[in-house]
Amino acid sequence: IILNTLQENGKITNSKLSKLVGISAPATLERVKRLESAGVIASFTVIVDHEKLGYLITGIVNLSLNLSQLTSVEGIKKEFAALDEVVECYQISGENDFILKVISKNIKTYAEFMNNKLTKIDGIRFIKSSFVIDSVKENRTFLFDLDEEYKM
Length: 152
Description:
- By secondary structure, the chain is of the alpha+beta class.
- It has 5 helices and 4 strands.
- A hairpin with a 6-residue loop joins strand 2 (86-91) and strand 3.
- It starts with a helix and ends in a 21-residue tail after the last strand.
């Protein structure tokens, strides 16, 4: 219950959380601290609606690498991670090697990102961009079915 509740509402007070869990406030706080210490809770954050801030383009970029041009896969991972426009980056198996989720104000700034940043990275063999037309599901939580709440 603790993990699921915190994913849905990270701003819930410890008092309200303890009532939901059915244990005392100090015991609830101790469990949350143990979950943080164990790395189960990685961070508390705010989810921003980027469109309301004028970032209207979400691009999904599929990339394949030219391994003969790479000095290291770790190096290219660092280059992708350093790009401010990239909000998610996954190394994947299958036809492509990476998928990037890119946020941009408009198609012009997206093109500038592609032309001035992404295509300048050595070792990329293939780039294919797709654009999100509609977000059907953007669930940033995963509801866990844990009988004993991770025994923390």
